[in-house]
Amino acid sequence: MHIIWQKNEKGHIALDLGAVRSFIASKLEKNEEVINLYFDSANSSLVCVLQMTKPERLDTLRGLLCPIFETTGITLLLEMVEVVRFQDQLAFYESPLFWGLLFGLIYIFGKLGLGGIVTCAVYSIIGYALSWLFLTQKGKGYTEQMAKKLQNTINGFKN
Predict the structure, then answer these.
(1) Per the structure, how many domains does the chain have?
(2) Which of 50, 81, 112 is the last residue in one of the domains?
(3) Is there a single domain that holds both residue 64 and residue 104?
(4) Residue 87 lies in a domain
(5) What pLDDT, on the 0 to 100 scale, is given for residue 119?
(6) For 128-159, how does the pLDDT look when each residue is reduced to its tens digit (9 = 90+)?
(7) Which residue has the higher pLDDT, 92 or 99?
């Protein structure tokens, strides 16, 4: 909480910047945000920096908020910044991971041949299936069911 005390031709005024920030934020749309709010004592102005994507909204907010603050003798300056977020997403065939895997597969095929690759794939599937059976909840349920059936079968042979 930062309180500013201002004396001007309209009298004395104390403003809580946290409350002012909340008030301004209440007038913003869902994708808009108050980035910074500070008091410029040299100009008796309150500067508010907003993150927005629509420049036309800034004029609307100025028309709504500036008259409210002018009644206190403080000038509200609204500034807008547009935060552009982009993702550097390449097509899969343009990614280094794709090319690394491709060259690795070419090397493996050259070294192991088709039979070696099929053997590796079979062992990979077996490893996945066993780890799924013993590590996941669903797999543990199947394992318990199989153990019970096996127990019943063994008990059936004993009788």
Answers:
(1) 2
(2) 81
(3) no
(4) no
(5) 87
(6) 888 888 888 888 888 899 899 988 888 887 76
(7) 99
Residue 1 has pLDDT above 60, yes or no: no
Question: Is 6 within 8 Å of 15 (Cβ atoms)?
Answer: yes
Residue 154 domain boundaries: 92-158
DSSP 61-76: HHHHHHHHHHTTT-EE
Domain endpoint, select from 53, 81, 109: 81
Burial of 90 (C-beta count, 10 Å sphere; 0-12/13-18/19+) = exposed
Q: Are 80 and 52 in contact (CB under 8 A)?
A: yes
96/75 same-domain check: no
Q: Please, are residues 46 and 37 in contact by the beta-carbon 8 Å criterion?
A: yes
Buried-exposed string 27-37: b where 16+ CB fall within 10 A, e elsewhere: eeeeebebeeb
Q: Say whether both 18 and 62 belong to one domain.
A: yes
pLDDT of residue 52: 86
Give the up-direction half-sphere exposure of residue 6: CA atoms within 13 A in the CB hemisphere.
24
The alpha carbon dihedral of 128, 133, 134, 137 has a sign of positive
